[in-house]
Amino acid sequence: MGLSIDTSSGDESSHTHRVFLVSNYILLGAASSCIFLTLSLRLIPSLIGALLILLHIITIGGAISGCAAASRGGSKFYGAHMVATVLTAIFQGSVSVLIFTRPSDFLNHMKSYVREEDGVVILKLAGGLCVLIFCLEWVVLTLAFFLNYYAYVERKGSNGNSYGMRSGKVQDDEDLKSYPWPFQV
Fold first, then answer.
1. Residues with Cβ < 8 Å from 3, sequence gap 6 or more?
2. Non-local CB neighbours of 19 within 8 Å, separated by 6+ positions
């Protein structure tokens, strides 16, 4: 059960895969929790609530596609995933700032059924999750970049080029001895 990841490529790549998957799973949980918190303010959401739920659904879709891409090892949709992640991160950050700076106005636009004091508490919980989502989106972006880089290095290494080195260490010290003295380190 779960995702199977090919970890034969190296320790750095497999560790990055695991952190990427865990970050995406946390994103899934936080976004779905935000949906339920939004629905707890009003069961049939207003336009603002529906847009907030749509933002979290897009976040969930990005996390699912990220998990699928990481488990397949392909980078076919890498660019689309990066663009969607950047846009959702920007919107999540904007929503969190809006929630924390003007919670009562935001609650009035959502046309909530709950009391204002309770609604503000629920909104601040959702705002905290939006901050978590914002930070995790940038972590996921960074990890996706590293995973794409590792895949690129492995592809170049399988073609017989010298780009396939897994570390920055010099492979052949004999080549360095032929350089002039200032370049020998």
1. 21, 67, 70, 71
2. 143
Measured distance CA(167)–CA(112) in Å, rounded:
55
Q: Which two structure tokens, joined as six digits, stand for 122?
A: 């629920």
3-state percent helix, strand, coil for the chain, nearest multiple of 5: 75, 0, 25
Burial of 79 (0-12, 13-18, 19+ CB in 10 A): exposed
pLDDT digits over 16-27, tens only? 888 988 999 999
Q: Provide the sign of the torsion angle of the four alpha carbons 62, 68, 71, 74, taken in this order.
A: negative
Split at pLDDT 50, 70, 90, the class of 14 is: confident
Q: Each residue of 84-106: pLDDT tens digit? A: 889 999 999 999 999 999 988 88
DSSP structure string for 118-140? HHHHHHHHHHHHHHHHHHHHHHH
Contact indicator for 124, 37 with CB cutoff of 8 Å = no
